[in-house]
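Dear H.,

Thanks for agreeing to be a second pair of eyes. The structure we're designing against is below in token form, covering all 87 positions.
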């Protein structure tokens, strides 16, 4: 009996991923989406803090009855070090 519930979850995940890919604020294909009950978990890396906020906004707009957990991260880019001398 677990199968009928898996199909709607898979559909919901696909719907969220499509929305994240199509929304101009996000245009993100590399966010992982997991649904557990009435909670949506978002993981992966995004390019900016603004995009991270937009990812959560898009999902909240799409699924207002779900609790959204945005666990995406923005990679930290270090300042370039000293130039390397080549001999």
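And this is the sequence the design step returned. I haven't edited it by hand at all.
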């Amino acid at each position: 009996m677990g199968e009928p519930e898996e199909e709607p979850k898979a559909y919901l995940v696909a719907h969220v991923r499509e929305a994240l890919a199509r929304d101009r604020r996000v245009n993100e294909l590399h966010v992982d989406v997991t649904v557990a009950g009435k909670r949506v978990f978002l993981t992966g890396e995004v390019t900016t803090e603004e995009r991270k906020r937009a990812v959560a906004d898009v999902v909240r707009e799409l699924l207002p009855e779900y609790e959204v957990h945005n666990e995406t991260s923005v990679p930290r880019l270090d300042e370039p070090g000293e130039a390397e001398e080549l001999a």
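Two observations from my side: Residues 3-22 form the longest helix (20 residues). The CA atoms of residues 46 and 81 lie 24 Å apart.

Warmly,
E.
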